[in-house]
Design a protein that fits this description.
With 203 residues, the chain is mainly alpha-helical. It has 8 helices and no strands.
């Protein structure tokens, strides 16, 4: 009988100790396995007095932990990106939304206007992303235009005075029949296309 009471008391104590509440997490075996300290590789904390994220715990009062790499010349926890890596989520050069076309049209092309490689690359990009709709000469006679009426004639009077900022914005968000290409073409390449379209309109 004594053994039964002892067993009941042991099991009861174990169950009570496992209870958790708002201010009491109960007893846990190796709590750091359940409450891991987040390691954020994009943060850069150089203060060694902030604590070490490897051996700190929730009770030491530290909210941030020293995570700089002493072996990296920039103290970074990440390596430099591989050459020619394409950045995701690259921000626009302005904060105008899809319906703020007039304001976006005033933004100037940041690329060097005298750099011949800008137009050359713009031509290559135009042929890849635009020619199938707008045609080789920009007159709206591409293969897609044979099936869908209303493709813009970039040499038409309505388009001749459009700024490069306007073209950049339309490439980014789309307009009318044209879909948005912001997720497919980098900001710099959009500027190159805009520069080439303006050159195309001069022919």
């Amino acid at each position: 009988m004594t053994f039964k009471y002892l067993a009941f008391l042991t099991v009861g104590s174990f169950l009570v100790s496992c209870a958790a509440g708002e201010n009491d997490t109960g007893l846990e075996y190796s709590p750091q396995m359940y409450h891991a300290i987040s390691y954020e590789p994009l943060t850069q904390i150089v203060d060694e007095d902030a604590g070490n994220w490897l051996d700190s715990n929730d009770e030491d009062g530290h909210g941030e932990f020293y995570n700089s790499n002493p072996y990296n010349p920039y103290k970074m926890t990440m390596r430099e990106p591989v050459a020619n890596t394409v950045r995701r989520g690259q921000p626009l050069p302005y904060r105008y939304t899809v319906d703020q076309l007039e304001a976006a049209a005033l933004v100037e092309n940041p690329l060097d206007a005298d750099d011949a490689s800008v137009v050359k690359k713009g031509k290559e990009l135009y042929e890849s992303y635009c020619q199938h709709c707008h045609g080789a000469e920009g007159t709206g006679d591409g293969k897609v235009a044979e099936a869908y009426a209303g493709v813009a004639n970039l040499k038409g009077a309505a388009y001749a005075e459009l700024s490069e900022g306007h073209l950049f914005h339309v490439i980014t968000y789309g307009k009318g029949l044209m879909g948005a290409h912001g997720s497919q073409v980098s900001p710099d390449d959009r500027w190159r296309i805009a520069k080439y379209v303006k050159e195309l309109q001069k022919k």
